[in-house]
Design brief:
This protein is mainly beta. The protein has a domain at 45-65 and 140-346: TolB, C-terminal domain (Neuraminidase), CATH 2.120.10.30. Helix content is 11%, strand content 41%.
Length: 355
Amino acid sequence: MLKKSFFLLIALLLLYLLLWPNGVDPASWQPPPAPAYAGPYEQNTRLQEMELLFADQCEGCEDVAVDPAGRIYGGAVTGELQLLDPRDGSVNVLANTGGRPLGLDFDRNGRLIVADAYQGLLAVDLQSGKTEELSKGLAGRNFGFTDDVEVGPDGRYYFSDASWKYGVGRYKLDLLEHRPYGSLFVYDPATKTTALLLDSLYFANGIAVSPDTAFVLVNETGKYRVTRYWLRGEKAGTADTFIDNLPGFPDGISRGENGLYWLTLLSPRNALLDRTLDKPFLRKIISRLPEFLKPKPERYNCILGLDAQGRVVFNLQDPAPRFAQISSVQQQGDMLYFGSLTEKGVGRMAVPVKE
């Protein structure tokens, strides 16, 4: 009897893995071979110079915004928008969005603009903490996963919706399905209107706008690339590839100084995922696995500094980090600040000197 029950259990488990409907519909894609951590991506330990600030605060501060005084604003996994001041070690809660604040940036009026995965695009008054909803969706459809935002030199807010199908807690299913559910939007505070710039993106993530507002960069995490959408000039309204076939999952990107863009690779590419991207049936099975059995991000930090042509000019890595899954990097003066998708605290280090 026990033996029959065992085989019945195994049969039911196989039926579940093979046939249980879960709404995931993987597409087939043959990714290019992952580049080695060599050449422009040569392994190093330069990120070990980073110091960890507020090690017991701001859990999951996926993005940070830093003012000229060096005060750090972060959005915690609890929904809190925290103000962290390294000068005196103080921590204050400005507001709670009631959602999951991700991307952050300041606008021309000094407000904190927030891309909240659940609440959409928000504006927070830094004095009162009052939160205003700016944009929840477009053309009758709510955003599914508002991810990152950067205020352009033109004063408009450029932001991404990572996936209209899968929310923040189900991002792995978007990567497993590998379909273009992401979009790039712009919000105009003068007219209070939202416009779609580019859709059909593979997990639209970090945003960076060029200093002259000629183009906006958006990370396509699912395609291991950074896409450039032209806002002005002969190519206006078209898109091309800024940098392709990265060795890891691109997450955050931001405009630095002197023509630089800082790009974070959350984790190296996953060999199992790459090997199954042209095998939709296998990925369907993987999507039914318990969360602890699904592919996981590797604890390995990599930050790239890119020039205006998408060439790697800085390569900062840490193969064994104590502060992992770095999802954002912001430059303020001669310092870089780092946020993490999952860990507590904020990283900081001096801008490296070009070798």
